[in-house]
Design goal:
This protein is mainly alpha-helical. The protein has helices at residues 16-21, 37-41, 43-47, 53-62, 65-69, 82-86, 93-106, 112-124, 132-140, 151-158, 163-166. The chain has two domains: 16-106, Fumarate Reductase Iron-sulfur Protein, Chain B, domain 2; 112-166, no CATH class. 46% of the residues lie in helices and 0% in strands.
Length: 181
């Protein structure tokens, strides 16, 4: 399993690492000495050749802002904190990755699948649209109806979060997102 090398030609932003360490959760970024424990223990890395927490941390340390914030693999983190629990340097790897995701989101770099899930949440109160056939199947099996969602209350709690800006480009047709895993 060969790791993809980081291209030297990628534009380096020497201030990027300092932006990350100023954010809550990113403070210990520079303490990582690249031992690889985070990647070897990561349950997602076991099943995806694309996802390597160690590589994400290294790109952030090197100032490869564009490469790390535009990557699709950044979003594969399951936030299980196994990497954080096992890091011999006490680097909060999962928190650093959360900081990087937040930075990417602030720049509008959110994978389509997450936009669709957010759109569904706002529309139905659930992250997945539940088809009428599923509701009828529940009834035929004698299962209780799904809990009612207070959509108005949900949307009220999301006010002021600029949710619309995150949903730009979400297609109404089919509401299906393609996963890139």
């Amino acid at each position: 399993m060969a790791e993809e090398s980081i291209s030297i030609s990628s534009k380096i932003d020497p201030k990027f690492r300092y932006e990350v360490i100023r954010m809550p959760g990113g403070e210990k970024l520079l303490q990582c000495f690249q031992c690889g424990t985070c990647t070897s223990d990561c349950p997602v890395a076991r099943f995806s050749d694309k996802y390597r927490p160690r590589k994400i941390i290294r790109m952030a340390q090197l100032g490869l802002r564009e490469k790390v914030l535009s990557s699709d693999f950044l979003w594969l983190c399951a936030s299980c904190f196994t990497c954080t629990d096992r890091c011999p340097q006490g680097v909060e790897v999962a928190s650093v990755i959360r900081v990087l995701k937040n930075m990417a989101a602030a720049e509008g770099r959110i994978p389509e699948v997450f936009k669709v899930l957010l759109s569904n949440l706002i529309k139905t109160g659930y992250i997945y649209e539940i088809p009428e056939s599923r509701i009828k199947k529940r009834e035929s099996l004698g299962l209780p109806p799904l809990p009612k969602v207070n959509i108005e209350g949900l949307n009220k709690s999301l006010q002021g979060m600029s949710i619309e800006s995150f949903l730009k480009g979400v297609s109404e047709k089919g509401r299906e997102a393609k996963l890139w895993v």
